[in-house]
């Protein structure tokens, strides 16, 4: 759908009548909404035939780096981003990489089709259940699922 130019009325003296700008603002707002809708449709068509995508964000103690990478490989997740040395506070305490608060976490981000999120989370839950009590004290693993609205 393309927009057509609507001519602005001109008075007899050749000047534009005073305008509050409401018509122009409404036209711009409508065009913006239409543009966003077109972009979403375009993204869905480019993106696996319209499959909704989700961002799975996982935060875990750095000691689990290798097992988490192996899990992603086993599940054939096509790509991920790893952010090493993430600092913060959570259920397992503070981790700031200092003497007072030693340690750090790793953050993994993966964009996956919505239908594969369940199996991904099941694997993470199984991994957590397999940890010994001592390993659980080193820190947990948290996974968050977020919608991916656009991707360029």
Short description:
With 152 residues, the chain is α+β, with helices and mostly antiparallel strands. The protein contains 4 helices and 6 strands; from the N terminus they run H-E-H-E-E-E-E-H-H-E.
Can you offer a commentary on this structure?
It is a single chain. The protein is of the alpha+beta class. It is 37% helix and 24% strand. It has four helices and six strands; from the N terminus they run αβαββββααβ. The strands form two sheets. It has a four-stranded antiparallel β-sheet, with helices on one face. Strands 3-4 form a two-stranded antiparallel sheet. β3 and β4 form a beta hairpin. It is elongated and about 65 Å long. The protein starts with 21 loop residues before the first helix and ends in a 5-residue tail after the last strand. The model has no long low-confidence stretch (mean pLDDT 80).
Annotation keywords:
single chain; four-stranded antiparallel β-sheet; alpha+beta; 152 residues; two-stranded antiparallel ribbon
Order of helices and strands: HEHEEEEHHE
Strands of the largest sheet, in order across it? 2-5-1-6
Average pLDDT for all residues: 80
Give the proportion of residues in helices. Answer: 25-40%
Strand content bin: 15-25%
- What is the terminal-to-terminal distance? 22 Å
List the helices and strands and how they pair.
Elements: H1 22-46, E1 53-61, H2 65-74, E2 81-86, E3 88-90, E4 93-95, E5 105-113, H3 114-129, H4 133-137, E6 141-147
Antiparallel strand pairs: 1-5, 1-6, 2-5, 3-4
């Amino acid at each position: 759908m393309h927009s057509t130019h609507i001519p602005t009325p001109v008075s007899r003296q050749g000047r534009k009548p005073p305008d509050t700008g409401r018509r122009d603002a409404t036209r711009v707002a409508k065009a913006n909404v239409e543009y966003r809708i077109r972009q979403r449709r375009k993204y869905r068509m480019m993106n696996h035939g319209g499959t909704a995508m989700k961002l799975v964000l996982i935060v875990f103690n750095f000691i689990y780096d290798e097992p988490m990478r192996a899990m992603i490989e086993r599940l054939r997740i096509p790509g991920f981003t790893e952010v090493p040395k993430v600092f913060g506070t959570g259920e397992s305490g503070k981790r700031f990489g200092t003497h007072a608060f030693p340690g750090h976490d790793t953050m993994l981000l993966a964009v996956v089709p919505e239908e594969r999120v369940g199996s991904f989370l099941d694997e993470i839950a199984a991994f957590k259940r397999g940890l010994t009590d001592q390993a659980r004290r080193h820190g947990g693993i948290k996974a968050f699922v977020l919608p991916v609205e656009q991707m360029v």
